Amino acid sequence: MARVRWRVTEFPRRLVSRCKALVSWLILLRQTLFYNEFTSYMVGLETAAEPMFWTVDKFSKYFGPIFMILVVCLTTSVVVIFYICLLPHVYQQSLSKTIFHLIFGHWLLVNIVFNYVMAVFTDPGHPPREIPETVSICKKCISPKPPRAHHCSICDKCVLKMDHHCPWINNCVGFYNHRYFFQFCIFMLSGTIYVCVTGVDLFKQHFYGDKYYPFPAVLYPLNMAYDIMYGDHNKPFLGGIAAVPVNSSFNKNHGGQHQPGVDLEVDMRNQHYHTAVVYEFVLCSAVVIALLLLVCWHVRMISLGETNIEVYINRKEVSRLKKLGLVYTNPYHYGFFKNWQIFFGLGKGRTFLKNVLFPSTHTPCGDGLTFPRVPNKGPREDKDRGLMLL
Ligand SMILES: [Zn+2]
Ligand SMILES: [Zn+2]
Known about the structure:
Blueprint: H1 10-34, H2 41-48, H3 50-93, H4 95-121, E1 136-138, E2 143-145, E3 150-152, E4 157-159, E5 164-166, E6 171-173, H5 178-208, H6 220-230, H7 249-253, H8 263-303, H9 308-323, H10 336-344, H11 352-355, H12 385-388
Antiparallel strand pairs: 1-2, 3-4, 5-6
Helix pairs in contact: 3-4, 3-5, 3-8, 4-5, 5-8
């Protein structure tokens, strides 16, 4: 007669071993499906962030025209206020100063407009199907890529000597329009500094009145904070429209005359004037801070013969080769002066005075497809380092 033995105690052990087998099988499945020798946590993070990149790429196209309209409208408003408020203020001081301002201001304005238009409408350059030197294949365009070219996911094209995609010009900054972009930034920075310097007296008068302030006028947020904490609250702080006193000496100094029945009209006119002066200075000083940082970054890159993208590639290469005992040097760094000369496309009868300080449509040196490489001066030569710059 058969005898049944209930081995209840074995059940948990079997369950655990089955679970272990299932887990190891799942790990094996994951590794089989996702194994890649080059996979790292960074790749995983990039993959996870892919939807975010996709959204940025997809919608940046639509933000570009809005940003461009913003640049045009804000620049126009600054120029109009300069003509209406600041220039008459300068004219009251002296005629010779006014003539200087007219010449200098218009020189800046012409350069700003010219370089902006050229940066927007100049094609940055795209590699043709046949190129003299191929360093890689673009996976998106399925076409050969020359040195220093990169694929722009917003334009959906490969761009020669790509620097970055700029929403403010709704265009890529590359081989053929990098000079225009940089010159636009420089002239815009100069223009905004010029407006700030010209309008600082008027701004002080309209923003602070006769109040004491410890910081320079350009640091108006600190002065506002100071006024809130330590200011004399009996005196009006003119940092807002509502603070313009009706029929005060402020109004009389700016064309307002106290006449019964026309108080509102006079006050509104002065309020607009007051707002325009404050807006002009606040906007321009904010642009100065932002552009100063951008220009400094670009000056550093151009001086070292790098583009925005190459800064990160070169940094990675430096640390990678350092681990191998190699010294990496940027093959496109020809020296400070040579870098700037190449960047501005000078030489062959082109001069800084004629072709940089004044509008010029000359094309950059070279074709954007090949770039001479500087021999490595490091202790051990890494002959293939140029190929790293994909
Ligand atoms: Zn491409
Ligand atoms: Zn682009």
